[in-house]
Design goal:
CATH topology: TIM Barrel
CATH class: Alpha Beta
Number of helices: 8
Strand content: 5-15%
CATH architecture: Alpha-Beta Barrel
Distance between the termini: 46 Å
Oligomer: single chain
Number of strands: 10
CATH superfamily: Aldolase class I
Radius of gyration: 19 Å
C-alpha cells in the first residue's frame, strides 16, 4: 500500500518574507552533455560540452558546500551519468565531515544498469527519474525510447533495494493525463514521491510557447483528487525575486545563479570555479535583500524593524 503521494516543485518559495542566511538546496550541474534531446530542456543539453568543471574542481566546490550545510545537494545536468567520475564525486561528498546534507541525483535513467544501480542506491538519498507521462506522450517530449529507459531504471533501483522518485515536467501536452499517470506509477511501480515542475520557456524550450500552461490548467492540477497531499508550484519562477535565497544553481562551467530559472546576466552571482563560495553567498544575500525591499515598495508596504 502506498502511504503517501507528494507533489511539489523543487523551487519552493519561502513561507515568509525572510530567507535563511544560506540556501537550502544546491543544484550542481555536472555536465551539459546529454544522450536525450528533450524539447523543453532549459540547459539546452546535448552531445557537445566545453570548459566543464574538472573532477578536482567539483571536489573543491563540494568541500566548500558542506561548510554551509544545505539541506540538499542535487547532482544534475545534462545527464550526470555521462560523467565517468560521477560515482567518485558522490563518494567524495559522502566522505566529507560532517556529511549532513542529503545527496540527490536527477537523471533520465537511460544509463542505469544493474551494476550501477547498487552504487547509486548506496550513495544517494534520492534518485529522481525524469518521466513525463505514458509512453507516447513521454517520448514526444523526451525522445523515442525514453519511456522504456526510465521504466527500466526504476526497476533496477527497486532491485537494488532503493526507492526511486519521479520528476514530471508539466506541459500542455501531458497535463490532462498526469493524474492517471501518477496513479499508475504509484500503484504499479511503487513510486512514493512525485515532483512536478511546470514548463518554463528557457533554453531549447524558449520558442515552445505551445507547451505553456494557462492559469486554469494549474488550478486544475492543484485539485488532483484523490491525491489530497498535493503541494504544486502553480506558477513559473517570476522575476520578482520571491524565491531568491532558497537555492543556488552552478552551471557545468562553474557560473552561479540563484536558481536555474534565473540564469540571466542580471542574476549572476559569481564563478564557483575561481571564487570562495562564501563570497557568492554574500552576493546572494544582497540580491535577496534588494528584491525583498523592492517587493515591499511595489506592494505599498513598509519595512518593519529587523527586516532585511
Amino acid at each position: 500500500m502506498i502511504q503517501k503521494h507528494i507533489f511539489y516543485s523543487d523551487i519552493m518559495q519561502p513561507k515568509n518574507s525572510k530567507c535563511k542566511k544560506y540556501p537550502r538546496a544546491i543544484y550542481l550541474h555536472l555536465t551539459q552533455r546529454c544522450n536525450f534531446n528533450c524539447v523543453y530542456c532549459y540547459l539546452n543539453a546535448g552531445k557537445q560540452s566545453c570548459n566543464e568543471l574538472t573532477t578536482d574542481e567539483v571536489k573543491r566546490i563540494l568541500s566548500q558546500i558542506v561548510i554551509f550545510q544545505p539541506v540538499k545537494v542535487i547532482f544534475t545536468g545534462g545527464e550526470p551519468l555521462m560523467r565517468k567520475d560521477l560515482i567518485e564525486l558522490a563518494r567524495y561528498f559522502r566522505g566529507l565531515n560532517p556529511p549532513l546534507s542529503q545527496l540527490c541525483l536527477d537523471t533520465n535513467g537511460s544509463l542505469i544498469t544493474s551494476r550501477t544501480a547498487s552504487s547509486l542506491v548506496a550513495l544517494f538519498d534520492e534518485i529522481r527519474i525524469s518521466i513525463d507521462g505514458f509512453k507516447d506522450t513521454n517520448d514526444v517530449l523526451r525522445g523515442q525510447g525514453a519511456f522504456k529507459s526510465a521504466i527500466q531504471a526504476i526497476g533496477e533501483i527497486h532491485k537494488a533495494e532503493g526507492s526511486p522518485s519521479i520528476a514530471i515536467t508539466l506541459t500542455s501536452i501531458n497535463i490532462f493525463e498526469v493524474r492517471y499517470f501518477v496513479h499508475y506509477m504509484c500503484h504499479e511501480w511503487g513510486i512514493q514521491t512525485v515532483r512536478i515542475n511546470p514548463f518554463k520557456p528557457m533554453g531549447r524550450g524558449e520558442t515552445r510557447t505551445d507547451l505553456l500552461l494557462g492559469d486554469h490548467n494549474l488550478n486544475w492540477v492543484g485539485s488532483l483528487d484523490p491525491f489530497s497531499a498535493c503541494d504544486v508550484d502553480r506558477s513559473p519562477c517570476n522575476r520578482d525575486g520571491s524565491c531568491i535565497g532558497t537555492s543556488i544553481s552552478i552551471t557545468p562551467q562553474g557560473l552561479t545563479y540563484p536558481c536555474h530559472w534565473l540564469s540571466q546576466e542580471e542574476y549572476y552571482l559569481g564563478d564557483a570555479r575561481n571564487e570562495w563560495l562564501g563570497f557568492i553567498y554574500e552576493r546572494l544575500n544582497k540580491l535577496r535583500q534588494h528584491f525583498h525591499v523592492k517587493n515591499i515598495r511595489l506592494k505599498g508596504g513598509t519595512k518593519q524593524n529587523g527586516d532585511t
